[in-house]
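Problem 12. The chain below contains 271 residues. Write out its predicted structure in token notation.
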Amino acid sequence: MGQYSVETSLYREVTILKDTFFTPPFNVVEVREDKSNPLLEVMIMSSSPGFFNHDHYKIDVNVKKETLLNIQTQSYQRVYDTPDGARQEMNVNIEENAYFSHLPHPSVPHKGAIFNSKNTINLAANSVLVWGEILACGRKLNGESFAFIKYNSLTEIYREGKLFYKDNLYLKPSAIDFKSIGQYEEFTYQANFVSIDPFHSVKEHIELMTTVLAEEEDMIFGVSKLSEDACAIRVLGNSGEQLFIALKKIRIQLDNQANALRKKEIEIKLI
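Solution.
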């Protein structure tokens, strides 16, 4: 089993990496350029090219009270021919007045791939989450569009112990034609992006997301309001890199927004 865990803490009002543990193939590296920024940025590096048969990854993230964390990935996540399956479990705990953002690179299931993942995220009343996921149809340039066996990614988000949002992405190409009307149709990539932020109105985030995505060509998207402080978007496109870069623009703006807000709070404390 490959695994890593990350736990944050505060030192002089700046988020630091208090504790981390990882086993092969993972390594956890801080990539924050400005060490004075409250937001801690870390990258998960991996010596493995992707998931192989029987691989099982376990991830634990604990974002402590009043800390800010962004976790980035190094490259596309490939799922190779896995006749017995591969899986990943990710558990995230975001404490009061804390911030967490995570937009991994696209997942690419190869021909014969079987993959299951479960993401469980627990939020406090005033914690912030920015979460994204991008899935490819497979290696389409190799003629492997929807040639995988099964891909299942279940994400459950809880606020104060109650289920707030659930997304069950389940694709089994042998059971349905994903190129048909009402499915992917002419598109080959899809993305899901969720923002939960009690410090800003959902209108602000919807306007930001709509503005960024409306600039993109060969892409369609829809936005759903989940509550007065939360929204989700679903995107279809034909380029994983295009989807990733567009959603990354949104993630970075939300990261910067959280950074700026925390800096103001620190300034007020120092007065």
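Discussion. Residues 240-270 form the longest helix (31 residues). Students who got a different answer should revisit the alignment rule from Section 12.3.
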